[in-house]
Amino acid sequence: MAKKEERKEVKTISMEELNKELRGYIAQIEALRAEISVIDESIANYRTVIKTINNLRDLGKGKNILIPIGGGAQIEAKIENPDRVVVSIGSGISAELNAEEALTQIAKEIASLQSLRRTLEQAIAEAYAKTEELLQKTRELGQAEGKSNK
Amino acid sequence: MDKKEIQKTLTLIKKLPESRRFFYNTGLLMVEVSKKEAVQILEEKLRAMEETQHNNRKGG
To answer: Does B29 lie at the interface with A, CB-CB under 8 angstroms?
Structure first.
């Protein structure tokens, strides 16, 4: 009788542990998904920049543009040289690049973000597999507990 | 910002010609700096990071 109680205790702890681990993996998946959506947003921003650089180059010198200054307000400016773009090159430094260089730099950033995204997707897939595995274990444990209670 | 990022930026800066304009982000404002100044700022940051790491290792 004492042995049966003991076994039941071990199973209860295991179930709790499984649930805890499961919750951990679910939280991990959610965090990874959030990170992926931040990356997607950055990629979308970079694509907009590419479009803007190309459009400004097509329009040429001397075009009047409106620069947003926040609060829905815009200030008028003139494009002096659409082939000169100031781009952040990391560590708080921005450099003046020509449009081609800027586009290459942005393409590199996109590629590195996409590679990071793939790594995160892989991590999600692994966490999913682990979740499935744990769910299966939980089901099995539940069934075993059900039988032993009968 | 880590050492790797700073080193990457330094390599990029060094590749660009002297005539290019550089800006340093001071928080709200971007300040124009020369190529030499940009390199100095980053090298200083690297040195400070290495010193901190060294001190942490010594302390730990």
So the answer is: no
